[in-house]
Fold each of these.
Amino acid sequence: MADFFWVGNTGNWSDYANHWATTDGGSTFRTNAPTSTDNCYITAASLSATSVITLNATASCAIFDSSAADNQFTITGAVYTFNLYGSITMHATYTRWSLTGTSYFYVRGTGTITTNGNLFLTLNRFYIDGVGITVTNADDCNIGVTECRHANGTWNQNGKNITTSGQYMTEAGTKTLTPNSSYFKVAAWTNTAPTNFT
């Protein structure tokens, strides 16, 4: 496990030699792109202007934290997937997502989703898919027009409200949705795989 700090404004996610530093705002760079056990941070030292981070390969990390960013940035992609194996904490206004085509956002490990009131914006699909995992909402979550697909794991709303103008779709796997006195507002519910769904 290692900490990765984005520097240098716009660039490709896999370009570790120019964008993933070993320290916050540092100039010593990692020798590989982040993996499923690494923590990724976007901070005030990461960006000096509005920037775009492009998924030019499949992206993975354990923690993604942009709560300390002070410039707007967008993570974009049309082909490659973003895999989260732990928790995500977004800045209230500066974090943007634009994953289109077959570029999907997967939550694959136990962790917490903290949006700080930010809208996920454009995600083609948002997946909860990890055997035995528990994904917990720390605050209300607006996933925009995204289609939410739930295959494996427990999605614990933790008394927080989830809103999407897309659909909620159950897929093959063992899954649990726990509202805890909150609402899940969707445009449609497609229960394609009701087996093993609690």
Note: The chain has a mean pLDDT of 96.
Amino acid sequence: RSLGHICWWYGDPEATLRYCQEALALVSPESPIAANIYITMATPYVYRQQFETARQYAEHGLAIAEQLQLPELLPRAHSNLGSILSRGGEIETGERHLRKAVELAQGSGLESYARVMAVGYLAQNLCGQGRLDEGRQLAEAILWERAANPNTYEMVVTRSVLADIALEADALDEAQAIFESLEEIGQRRQFRIPLAMVYFGLAYIHQQNGRSEAAIHYAQQSVAILEPLDLWQLFLD
């Protein structure tokens, strides 16, 4: 299961699903580990526009975590489902799950990863609702709080969300500075999917500023990562 999660961080959704299926064959289908597996499996499906499959896995993982009263899993379970619902167009329901994830993570003090990811997803959700200032404040607060660990996967994702919010506010220079700071980290840590979105953001900014050659260069780098993975939902988002 852990290998599956790591493979997602490094941009191999096929391996994520393969390891998770292997793990499911080794455990009781209603066990804590199974709940964790279902939560991990949901994400690759949502980025492939298979929302119903993603939602089923996320809801099943959450149901087990609630039934077995697993406080260490509940923040990530709510966060994952909230992100999926948001991307599927159920913005308000998604927001409720994301706020629940943040609340549970703060209350337990255990899940810093889940908390940062939930805040990032919530900021993205609010941005989609046009609530840019609220989303920006949430993202900036968690980034400030976790500033000592800027190179982790969850921090890269959340900083990328902050750049997206800057784009929505037409603050192109601010967005470019954030994306450029993430480019080196993404390359060094090999966070390939977040790196693809950094390239995509830089392509958009250069195109908006009339620098077509640079825009095409970054766009081609983004497509080169995502095309073999069939994760076009990221571009649509």
Note: The chain has a mean pLDDT of 94.
